[in-house]
Design a protein that fits this description.
This protein is of the alpha+beta class. Strand 4 and strand 5 form a beta hairpin.
Length: 122
């Protein structure tokens, strides 16, 4: 078994840049303790604790389409469905070490794992 530190994803809707291009494919890495502690010192988090998720995701999303860098502004401008998808993925990979879901077939009742995929538009 190999250790995986980066996980690919496809956003349900995608980030639309200034030129109108949609960026959906990306990569998220596992968080470090520093990733979780450093944002707590940011003035935006001190004045609005809800902003913690924005900064945290900007730190761990390593690629989104062909954007040169992921800034908090990129995360702020994501559709709500994409923001929620990334938050769920963050929790899944950092708590379980993978981006798989355990599912049960309704017909045969067999349980197996599948890679998590976004729901909605493709």
């Amino acid at each position: 078994m190999t250790f995986q530190s980066e996980f690919p994803f496809t956003l349900p809707r995608g980030f639309v840049d200034a030129e109108g291009r949609v960026h959906k494919e990306g990569t998220m890495r596992l968080a470090t303790a520093k990733d979780e502690v450093t944002p707590l010192q940011d003035y935006r988090v001190k004045t609005n604790p809800g902003y913690l998720a924005v900064i945290l995701l900007a730190r761990v999303v390593t690629r989104l389409g062909d954007l040169p860098q992921i800034y908090p502004q990129v995360i702020e401008d994501l559709p709500v469905a994409d923001f929620a998808y990334l938050q769920t993925m963050y929790r899944r990979i950092n708590e379980h070490g993978h981006n798989r879901l355990s599912v049960t077939c309704p017909a045969c009742e067999k349980t197996f794992e599948v890679e998590a995929e976004p729901v909605g538009e493709s």
